[in-house]
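The methods section describes the discrete structure representation at length, but only in general terms. An entry of this sort, consisting of the sequence and the corresponding backbone structure tokens, reads as follows:
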Amino acid sequence: MQYVYMRGDKSIMNPEIDRNEKNESIMNPEIDRNEKNKSIINPVTVRNVIIGEGMPKICVPIVGVTKDDIMNEAGKLPGIPADLAEWRADWYEDVSDLEKVKDVQSSLRSILKDMPLLLTLRTAREGGKMPIAPGNYAAWIKAALTAGSVDLADIEAFTGDDLVREVIETAHGLGVKVIASNHDFDKTPDKDDLIGRMCKMQELGADICKIAVMPQCPADVLTLLAATEEMCRLYADRPVITMSMAAQGAVSRMCGEVFGSAVTFGAAGRASAPGQIAV
């Protein structure tokens, strides 16, 4: 007996109907319109790495407290399958001393050679180590970038529109690409909210949009993945990075290529966020 799956009153196993449906899809303006509405994502090239093309790139955070810790962690990266390094400056004991911050950046550049370096000062508001007012946060990033040693900078997208635009303008003037980010360590917002946040990042002028959320149940992970897929299919014109955190969300870090996330974060030592997978 042949089993036939019925869709409405049509059999998808009937070759005559299949032929008709194929012809109908070519001529159907609604289908053509959907195809035209698909977004085209423009990859971002940073040194020898193309973000938003091919397999998701692997970024490994450096979370040392002292300069020696930071250099030791950085020294491990050339020997592992990492594409980018992220320096989480908010972990650094002398993060308020900008001259020392610039010195660390310069030393990291020497160790990492041609590996792209992302500078991040994660605030306490978004799960980081640094309690800092929005204005001081933006000023710190702009000053730190003048060292000329980093390739990308992270700016928390909801710091304030004017401040974010100032940081992006400064970064671009120095040849630095910008990742606009948003982190929710309490919950997973609904799909439309997530898409709206990423669209806002595009409007602000970031080169890459990043969202990280905390799942409370398996359905939350699916919400994050569905938002990623829809964003990349319909709205994104630049790479996006998304992840569902903690052990429950770990699958989102491994299937980015399917849903559209361009970078995944993995740990070579200490993790900078819950759920990061060892590289």
Remarks:
- Residues 153 and 178 are 5 Å apart (CA to CA).
